[in-house]
Amino acid sequence: MKIKLDPITRIEGHLSVSLDIEDGKVAAAYSAGTMFRGFEMILQGRDPLDAVQITQRICGVCPVDHGVAASLGLDQALGLDTPDNGRLLRNLIVAANHIQDHILHFYHLSALDFIDIKAVTQYRGNDQGLLELRDWVQAELQHKKINPAAPFLPRYRGTYIKDTDLNLTAIKNYLAAFRTRALSHEMLAVFGGKAPHAASLVPSGVTAKPTINRVEAFRSRLKDLQHFIDTAYLPDVIAISQAFPDYFNIGYGSGNLLAYGGFPEDAAHQHQFMTGGVYRNGRLESLDLSKIAENTTYTWVTQTPDLHPSRGHTEPAPHKPDAYSWIKAPRYDGAVMEVGPMARLMIAHHLGHNPAISGLLAQTLARIDQPLKAMQSVMGRHLARALECKLLADRCEVWLDQLRVGEPATAGAFKIPATGQGVGLTEAARGGLGHWLEISDGRIKHYECVVPTTWNCSPRDDQGQPGPMEQALADLPIEDQANPIEATRVVRSFDPCLACAVH
Ligand code: NFE
């Protein structure tokens, strides 16, 4: 028996997942990115500065991550130093977007896998938003749609939360999260110029100078976001995780974790708020970029030997036999690696360099009575995002205080060299993001992005090793094959962005 989930809704981009079912369980899973984009080809021959703006168009949910990765790559290629203000403003812009992105993922993409939206029909208060939502859902229950955009029913049959108060609280927060996300985008735009695609990112920093007005405009919104994270997001994730403890044992994945590190705390990037590292076979290793290579055995691109991203090659081959995805298969020393908020939290925890991270993680796990290893699961990924949101929002206060008001946030004028090479590594919302670039004759000669969802949703490689999400789906029991809700819960826990994955 085969189940094909195509397209998977409530994610970003075009993902198709095929499941082979035997004895009521997933025997094999295949993850396919079903669209070609070709950004790396578009960039060839262009002015290197274009990369900061063009790569932001890879995605609407993590554009500033691409903008910062491109800027960091150009910093290296152009030999530019970034003043502290530039580093801090990059951190603040990226953190503002992570907060928006994690809240988007939990409330608007994933929560309805667990919360019972039908509970809103029992709402008896006078909140205008909830009353409108109640009318929409009631109409959908009668097979009518008042608003064509109301997307709640039908849905997969399955077990949803039964506690009406918990459902209604989470549904109220689902609505509040729209305003909260708008606030995070406003906060991003204070220094980014606009959102989602920031105009102010440039090599060596950010064109916006920190002024008292801007710092306070950022800070006042941050306070509201911290309040939402502390009183809605974290409590809702914890309540849902307690209602579905089984999902701490479901969706393990490849077990190996990778982070490049992000949010530098000093000019040399020696210290980062989220540290890079590799967690493989239960042990921590330091990251060695030379061990990264992309395999394309099952990707619809011309077959090459495994290539390091500095030599990555993309030439579409849509009729390639046996290929089943437009996503490449990045591997680390041949190993399948998961990236993302859970990976960076676990790596930071194992490194033990940051008491704020280890303390919050340990305290939360104690509260819900789960061991550390439970983090490598569907519910662990949701929890990691919520914890990271709190950690980043709290850290933004420190970065705001460190800004030197009135001083520049770039190194000033620079020249594009005839030749140069660089790599920009950062932590995007969904995990480690790397841009490798080469300049020749003052133009971009080569550009290769290795993107979080490229790691997580990668297809098999030449060794037959399935990608992290494919592994997380393996052996998953599917109770009702007409309603494979368990599979969509596993898939959404990775927060896939296919626009990014195929770029
Ligand atoms: Ni399109 Fe992205 C993030 C990046 S994920 S969302 O986060 O880079 O592949």
Describe this structure as you would to a colleague.
The protein has 503 residues and is α+β, with helices and mostly antiparallel strands. It is built from 14 helices and 15 strands. The chain has helices at 39-43, 50-54, 63-78, 84-110, 128-141, 164-192, 212-243, 341-351, 355-368, 378-402, 452-456, 468-473, 485-493, 498-502, and strands at 2-5, 15-22, 25-33, 201-202, 205-206, 257-259, 262-264, 272-274, 277-280, 283-285, 292-295, 329-332, 420-428, 431-440, 443-450. A three-stranded antiparallel beta sheet has the order 1-2-3. The protein has a three-stranded antiparallel beta sheet with strand order 6-9-10, with helices on one face. The chain has a three-stranded antiparallel beta sheet with strand order 13-14-15. Strand 4 and strand 5 form a beta hairpin. Helix 7 packs antiparallel against helix 10, helix 9 (355-368) runs antiparallel to helix 10 and helix 10 runs parallel beside helix 13. The radius of gyration is 22 Å and the shape is globular. The two termini are 32 Å apart. The model has no long low-confidence stretch (mean pLDDT 97). NI-FE active center binds at residues 12, 59, 61-62, 65-66, 428-430, 433, 451-453, 497, 499-501. NI-FE active center (NFE) is lined by residues 12, 59, 61-62, 65-66, 428-430, 433, 451-453, 497, 499-501.
